[in-house]
Amino acid sequence: MLKRIQTRDLVLGMYVQEFCGSWMDHPFWRAKFLLKEPSDLARIRATSITELWIDTDRGQDVAAGTVTLTQEEVEARIDTDFSDLAAMHAMESTAAAKPRPAPMAPPCRNALASMQDELRAAAAICSRGKDAVISMFSEARMGRAVDAAQAQRLAQEINDSVTRNPGALISLARLKTADDYTYLHSVAVCALMVALSRQLGLSEAHTRSAGLAGLLHDLGKAAVPIEVLNKPGKLTDEEFDMVRRHPVAGYEMLKEAGQVGAPVLDACRHHHEKMDGTGYPDRLAGEKISLIARMAAVCDVYDAITSDRAYKRGWDPSESLRRMAEWTGGHFDARVFQAFVKSIGIYPVGSLVRLVSGRLAVVTEQGSRSLVTPKVKVFYSTRSNLRIAPEIIDLGAVGCNDRIAAREDPAKWNFPDLNAMWSGLPSHAPA
């Protein structure tokens, strides 16, 4: 069993499963090992790390009475009370003076559209969304005001898809080509913002506002030359400065048009701010960054690092969350990031995982009972090193004895049909 303990309770004979913190904060090249040497224990206690995971099945358990957290209890803590953040967002909204509807409850599982049905609908939305965003960017490049009504209609269509099945459009929009990135990124961030808003329990009006902010947050990139946006190599200092000016450029475009509310303007200008004050353009820090901007920062980065770009391949969704967790506190608001993880899952759709049975599987859908028990499609045996007949398994089902043992790096296995296996569509097919 995995248990999360304080570093001060660590003793020799325990099996270290994972440190809670950045890999840069601890002195070991590996994160999983049996703690046998007193010198290693001293080195761990000398670091800034205060908590870690141990595996009691592979090493000594904690002493009776020691305060620990199981994996399930840690999950429960993700359900943080976000009422203060929701209240902050209400004050920032131009409609704050109006009565607010009660926070939305998540839709019932049996009311959700099936994943495959919604994936087909999501593919059509991605195609229309790409065309709409291209049109908005073209109008902006010619100095014309954004068609706010068109943007709101598209944001609502994306909102409706996320309501029917949260995982479908979010996952599909990640499968964009490098050439489509700038446009489908806006669609993806819109969907992520809607899902995050619902996880935070924000009102319907605030959720619509967050979706529109996600759709328009990068409008300022219309002022950046295409050859710079799609440059496959390292940007020059001058080119990097051009890109860094896009939040202010987009803010000015939207402000001049005068057709969107203050929260959307704020998200456009401040989605590259960081909690430690090192972001841009205004170097805001902590509570000076609005909730909607903190939400946009998380959603923007997640889609950026999981998508193929002109200069790099996208990271695996689950690995991306692990890396983002290391940046939390400095880059992201910790509570917003926790809610984001809850909204898409610890193992997002498309993640490659290894089960304790030795089989490889791709996550096809989030489970209804736990963040660590999604539905998966098994297709490969690591024991025989052969493909096996694909089979959908609900790891949260009663009587299921298999579970996720670890993430796997897709680059290591190079399965050409990995995305097709969970989406039912050819790779890079959303547009």
From TrEMBL:
Cross-referenced Pfam families: DUF3391, HD_5
GO MF terms listed in the record are:
phosphoric diester hydrolase activity
Question: Which residues belong to any copy of the HD-GYP domain?
Answer: 160-356
Gene3D superfamilies according to UniProt: Hypothetical protein af1432
Q: Supply the InterPro entries for this chain.
A: DUF3391 (IPR021812), HD/PDEase_dom (IPR003607), HD_domain (IPR006674), HD_GYP_dom (IPR037522), HDIG_dom (IPR006675)
CDD domains associated with the record: HDc
Residue ranges annotated for the HD domain, each copy included = 182-298
This one is known as: HD-GYP domain-containing protein
